[in-house]
Structure formats: structure tokens, C-alpha cells
Design a protein that fits this description.
Blueprint lengths: L1 H5 L12 H5 L1 H11 L2 E4 L5 E4 L2 H9 L4 E2 L24 H9 L5 H5 L2 H13 L6 E3 H6 L2 H11 L6 H13 L2 H23 L7 H7 L2 E2 L2 E2 L2 H17 L1 H14 L1 H9 L4 H11 L5 E6 L3 E3 L2 E3 L4 E5 H4 L34 H18 L4 E2 L6 E4 L3 E5 L1 E3 L11
Helix pairs in contact: 7-9, 7-18, 9-13, 10-11, 11-12, 11-13, 12-13, 14-15, 14-16, 14-18, 16-18
């Protein structure tokens, strides 16, 4: 029974913040997708959880019925400001995406390759001769922030730890501390944006955000612009870490796959898609139902709150064969790790580049590594999921010559 396995009835009494979900992540996901198209929660005001691929895809594309305008977190903490454009609907959402998207396009992201590769090698330099690293603190929590700060908004890299801590507390911390944590990030980034607004234009992403867009025919409020830079920063530093760490954990424990990628780096882009599917950094994001509708055999009424379970949708056997297996050679990889519909992750091309560079550079310089004996991996799970520790060991020597 579920209550014996998970400590609660996950079909009728699900809780995304339950430590048992964190500890039994894949087991819970597979149970839900196999038995329960729509699960329910009694926590707070209650919410539903849509679990199967086609249902998640349908709801994600139908923004008119499943609105983002009341936020992506269930039982939203009091005082937590909305993050735009993520927590908005068209046309306002589209006004922002229209001006932001050029900076995240495949062509724009290609130009970041050299800088991201240099940063990856700088981080590897810091531990390659030690013969071991704690991959999260030494690498995976650092590189995404560097990539975003250096290439897109120009925030000082030395302020990255403070922002990472604020963002993580805002998602995984005690509910009564989340709003204050997000407030710290908003305050810092608001001051940064105000300074840039008063400087000569550089024609970059920050200038576009500071200029704003129209909302209801008028210039949008300053607070919305601060919200946008916070949302982008949050997405840029809080998601890729889990995929990165998951990929390294898999390769550390599956030497045949690691050796395969070392021999043929051309397989890495496909492996990146499979790692993103298997290690979903975004577990589930919320929507508010705007009118009576049916999905997954359940009837929803106006005002109901639902979570689109991207993590389980990527493990639906009706969408792909053997979804519980991680197969770096898998063809036609269907997943929802970057979301679906108009709110699909704007930074997906940047995330893919970061992951590809990490695998290429780490495997080039440290082709042989494993998990340190006696250590375990630690995780945190809510609407997002992350790995907080991963100890790796390897021969303490430089492989493949210098970094660049």
C-alpha cells in the first residue's frame, strides 16, 4: 500500500514538499503515471496533480483554460511577488517573450560557447590535481550562474552565492521563509537594474528589461521589470544544476556509458536530451483553472489549482519505451523537462549548451571518475529538484593537457 511505502496515500493526499517524495522520487513518479492520471492534495487550500504526458501537454498548451497568472507554487506564501513573464498569460506574457527571446535564440547562445568553456575549465583547474571534488559546490552550482551573469546580465560573479542561497530558500526552504528569501533577490536585482537604467545604453538584455513593455496599453510598472530580471536569473541559476549533477552521477556509476561518450563525443548532444529527461530540474509548475473542463478523466471547476507534473510526464510509457531506463542512445526522446506551450523555458538553448560543454570538457580532461566510497547523494525537492552533494574521485592528474 502507498501509505506503507510513502507514508501517505499519494493519489488522494499528495504533498510535493513531503520528505518522502524527495526520498522516493522516481518510485512516486512511476506509481502516479501508472495508476493515477490526476492525483489530489489536501495540503493548505488543496491542489491536483496532472501526471501523464498527453494530459500535461494538453494543459500546458491551453493557457486560456490553465492560467499561469496566479503563480506556479501551490499554496503560495503570503507576500511572495509574482515572477514575470513566467507567472503571466498572453498578451502580457507574449509582449515580454517577444523582446527577450532574441537574446536566448540558438544563434545568440552560440556566441556564449567560448566563455562557458573557459569557465568550465577554470572550475576544473581548481580541483583536477586533487583527484577528487564535491561536484555540486566545486562545479555544478557555479557554472550556470557564471554562464548567465557573464553572457547575459553582467551581475558581478562574486554575488552569485548570495543569489543562489536566496533562490534555493525561496523554493526549498520553510514556507514561512520563502517570501523573504525571494525578497532579498528582488531587492538586490532591483538595485542593479536601477543602476543600469541610469547608465548609458549598452543595447543588451538588461537595457531591454529596463525599458519594459506595454501592459494594458500603458508602460508596465517598474516592479514588473524587476520581476522579469529576477525570473530570468532564477531560471538561469536554479535549474541546470540538477541535470548536470545527474549526468555526472550516471557516468560515474555506468563506466560503459562514460567510455562510450569519451570515445565518441558526437553522441553527447543526444545524451544531453536523455539526461534532461531523466533528471528533471522542474518537477511540476502550477496553473489555475479558468473554466470548467475535463482532463485525465477528472472534472475541474473554475478556480481549481493544478500542478503540471513535468517529471512524471517524461516517464510515461505511452510517450516512450522503457522510460524508467536511462539510455544515452535513445532515439526520439520525448520529454517535458523544459515545459510545453507558450511558457516553455526561454533558456532551453542555453541550458543545452551548458550541459554539452560540461560533458565535453569534463570527459576530455577527466575521462575516468567514480563516486567516492562511503558518500551518498543528497537531494532537495519541491516544485523544482536539485542534488546538493556528489563526491567524485579520479586520478589526480591533468588529462588531455591544459584547459583551453
Amino acid at each position: 500500500m502507498d501509505t506503507e511505502r510513502f507514508g501517505r496515500d499519494i493519489e488522494k493526499d499528495f504533498d510535493i514538499d513531503d520528505p518522502a517524495f524527495n526520498e522516493n522520487f522516481y518510485d512516486v513518479l512511476d506509481t502516479l503515471v501508472a495508476r493515477c492520471p490526476v492525483a489530489h492534495s489536501k495540503v493548505g487550500n488543496g491542489y491536483a496533480l496532472i501526471n501523464r504526458y498527453e494530459d500535461v501537454r494538453r494543459a500546458g498548451q491551453d493557457w486560456q483554460t490553465f492560467s499561469s497568472a496566479k503563480g506556479f507554487q501551490p499554496n503560495r506564501p503570503e507576500g511572495l511577488p509574482y515572477l514575470y513573464p513566467e507567472e503571466s498569460d498572453p498578451p502580457y506574457h507574449d509582449n515580454w517573450r517577444r523582446v527577450l527571446s532574441p537574446y536566448f535564440s540558438p544563434n545568440a547562445v552560440k556566441g556564449f560557447d567560448e566563455q562557458i568553456r573557459a569557465d568550465a575549465n577554470d572550475l576544473i583547474d581548481s580541483f583536477v590535481d586533487r583527484g577528487e571534488c564535491e561536484f555540486i559546490s566545486d562545479f555544478a552550482s557555479e557554472l550556470p550562474g557564471r554562464a548567465f551573469f557573464k553572457n547575459l546580465i553582467g551581475v558581478p560573479v562574486e554575488d552569485l552565492p548570495m543569489l543562489v542561497e536566496a533562490m534555493e530558500t525561496g523554493i526549498y526552504g520553510p514556507v514561512d521563509k520563502r517570501a523573504a528569501a525571494f525578497g532579498r533577490a528582488l531587492g538586490y536585482l532591483g538595485e542593479f537594474l536601477a543602476r543600469r537604467r541610469d547608465e548609458p545604453s549598452r543595447g543588451d538584455l538588461v537595457d531591454v528589461i529596463a525599458a519594459g513593455v506595454e501592459r494594458d496599453g500603458e508602460p508596465c510598472p517598474w516592479e514588473d521589470r524587476v520581476s522579469v530580471i529576477t525570473d530570468l536569473t532564477f531560471g538561469g541559476i536554479a535549474t541546470t544544476t540538477f541535470v548536470m549533477a545527474g549526468a555526472m552521477l550516471h557516468l560515474a556509476t555506468h563506466p560503459e556509458d562514460r567510455e562510450r561518450l569519451v570515445r565518441d563525443p558526437g553522441l553527447i548532444p543526444n545524451a544531453v536530451e536523455e539526461f534532461a529527461r531523466y533528471y528533471p530540474p522542474v518537477v511540476a509548475l502550477g496553473r489555475t483553472v479558468t473554466k470548467e473542463t475535463e482532463i485525465g478523466g477528472h472534472r475541474f471547476k473554475e478556480g481549481d489549482y493544478v500542478l503540471l507534473n513535468y517529471a512524471s510526464a517524461s516517464r510515461d510509457p505511452k510517450a516512450l519505451d522503457n522510460p524508467a531506463e536511462l539510455d544515452i542512445g535513445r532515439e526520439d526522446i520525448l520529454h517535458t523537462s523544459f515545459g510545453v506551450g507558450p511558457h516553455r523555458c526561454i533558456g532551453s538553448h542555453l541550458a543545452r549548451l551548458e550541459l554539452r560543454v560540461v560533458l565535453e570538457e569534463f570527459l576530455r580532461r577527466i575521462p575516468d571518475f567514480s563516486v567516492k566510497e562511503g558518500t551518498t547523494q543528497e537531494y532537495e525537492t519541491g516544485v523544482l529538484r536539485t542534488m546538493t552533494s556528489l563526491h567524485l574521485v579520479f586520478p589526480g592528474r591533468r588529462a588531455g593537457g591544459a584547459g583551453r
